[in-house]
Amino acid sequence: MFTSIKEIEIRYAETDQMGVVYHANYVVWLELGRSQLITDLGYSFIEVEEKGYVSPVMNVNINYKAALRYGEPAFVKTWVKSQDKLRTVYAYEVLHEDGTVAATATTEHIIVKKENFRPVSFKKINEEWFNKYIEIAEQQA
């Protein structure tokens, strides 16, 4: 299983009155992890968007385990959990520097035409990238 790691510098503005990272910031970090995975594999979503497609998030699920605080580094570990004809599910672990899991998460995405938001098969957009996701997915189709 191919994984990617993205280091996150926790900024003061990302914390709440209790001094811990505000829960909504994790969603932004998941996107950073997902982008890092795509880059590490040698692809770019800009190319997909230039062809007239976007990849909306259909579902986000986050389970918070251990608080992260300002001044600590965080690490987002990302991998492809599953890939089928239309849906990509990414999985994540947000980690403390010592490897303690701060949160686990999944996001589900589809590819749609930008003009009408109709779903399109990922394989039709970029067969090489689709096949790479099938190859590295945690759960084989």
UniProtKB/TrEMBL annotation:
The UniProt keyword set, sorted, is:
Hydrolase
The enzyme's E.C. designation: 3.1.2.-
Q: GO molecular function: any one?
A: hydrolase activity
Top-level taxon of the source organism: Bacteria
Q: What class of enzyme is it?
A: hydrolase
| Pfam assignment, any one | 4HBT_2
CDD domains reported for this sequence: 4HBT
Q: Which InterPro entries match?
A: 4-hydroxybenzoyl-CoA_TE, HotDog_dom_sf, YbgC/YbaW
Q: Please name the SUPFAM superfamilies in this protein's record.
A: Thioesterase/thiol ester dehydrase-isomerase
Q: State the family it belongs to.
A: Belongs to the 4-hydroxybenzoyl-CoA thioesterase family.
Q: What is this protein called?
A: Acyl-CoA thioesterase
